[in-house]
Amino acid sequence: MGVKDRLDDNLDIVYSYSISFEESNSTKWLSRWDYISYELSNAKIQWFSTMNSFIIVVFLGGMLALVLLRTLRRCGAQVISMDDPESIPKHFRWMLVHEDVFRAPRCGMLLSVFLGSGAHVGIVAFLTLLLACLGHITPANPGSLATYPMVLFVCLGTPAGYVSSHFYKMFGGKRWIENALLTSLLCPGIVFALCSILNVVLWIHDSSGAIPFMTWATFPIPWLLVTTPLVFLGAHLGFKCCAFEQTMRTGGTPREIPKQRCVTRPVIGLLIGGILPFGSIIIQLFFTLRSIWSHQMYSTFEFPMLVFVLLVITCAEITIMLCYFHLLAEDYRWVWRSFLTSGFTAFYVFAYCVHYFNKLAITGAASIVIYFGVSVIMAFVFFLFTGTVGFLSCWWFVGKIFSAVKYTTAAPVTDPVPEQVAVDEEGTYDRDEERQGMLSDK
After folding, report:
1. What is the pLDDT of residue 182?
2. pLDDT (tens digit, 9 = 90+) per residue, 340-396?
């Protein structure tokens, strides 16, 4: 069809197309989106990232196995004497803190609340990814990705209360009701407050994405009426069961901590402990942010599931390694440090979100507030989860190595037994009796 260079009147062009559907029995209903999802997911890049994370896990696992073999086998083969600390080899110097390693930490209530919330987040994340891998979360049902985590969060309050109260009792706490109340309200309340602020910002700017007030007001009802009682139930069960039996007794006076080298200082440990777990998830974090802010369809949940498992293993391994090095330096303050070491991954996550912001063409104060508000919530959830993984792994490691050690101390000095003197057929008698007889003769 030819068109003139200049037209005096409007020209109408009609486009048409035809579609034919063919029935196929070879493709299952749940996997009908796989060919689109595989093309959009950059599977080669994600496989490459997963393999890099796997190499990190194998490297750290080899170092950890070497430490365990070196520590546990040699400790079980010999008896350590605490009377002469200078005779203990350098790689066994961690034994000197045996009376302080199980000392209750400061702010044990807050730490136990964080542990319960972190366990809650971890269980919800794992079950959500598992359901997604089984095909229950698909692009055909976009709302399922938000519905499933919320339902799981409401229904899984019992493990959070159990973990929180169990460790609170291990730290020597007695107020389990206050502990359960903080577990059910503190961390979820922080997230809900941040989400409320973001929703108010959307209301002010008349955004179509703002949730109506009446709908938003109904969100805390399941949380308060279902999750909170379940948290109290778990707290009752966790506080009622036997606490972790400490392998060593705690001394009365805390041991003086020697001056630490630069490598074993807390700041260096935090920086090292967070960078390796972050390196195992950086590519997956990029695709997650792209799907959120660039409106990219994301449905290949097998890769997030693999990365989730690798993240857990990496956090556990690097935290145990750093905990062992601090114990070698005779620093027994492992409780909070184990939580913060792997929890520092959240700092790198937020820093990457700030870096990713420069790649987006976001303008306007409201959009900027929404972006950084969501980034803060994401970093806070990462902090709770990774910190809990680090603490649980170090708790297992410390109990394992100190239970394999045999300690001896010098026997107390006692008065000598009176000497026995033998006589003829009447047997023996004491020297005291002999002296008494000599005095009577005089």
Report:
1. 95
2. 999 999 999 999 999 999 888 888 888 899 999 999 999 999 999 999 999 999 999
SS3 track for the chain: CCCCCCCCCCCCCCCCCCCCCCCCCCCCCCCCCHHHHHHHCCHHHHHHHHHHHHHHHHHHHHHHHHHHHHHHHHHHHCEEECCCHHHCCHHHHHHHHCCCCCCCCCCHHHHHHHHHHHHHHHHHHHHHHHHHHCCCCCCCCCCHHHHHHHHHHHHCHHHHHHHHHHHHHHCCCCCHHHHHHHHHHHHHHHHHHHHHHHHHHHHHCCCCCCCCHHHHHCCHHHHHHHHHHHHHHHHHHHHHCCCCCCCCCCCCCCCCCCCCCCCCCHHHHHHHHHHHHHHHHHHHHHHHHHHHHCCCCCCCCHHHHHHHHHHHHHHHHHHHHHHHHHHHCCCCCCHHHHHHHHHCHHHHHHHHHHHHHCCCCCCCHHHHHHHHHHHHHHHHHHHHHHHHHHHHHHHHHHHHHHHCCEEECCCCCCCCCCCEEECCCCCEEEHHHHHHHHHHHC
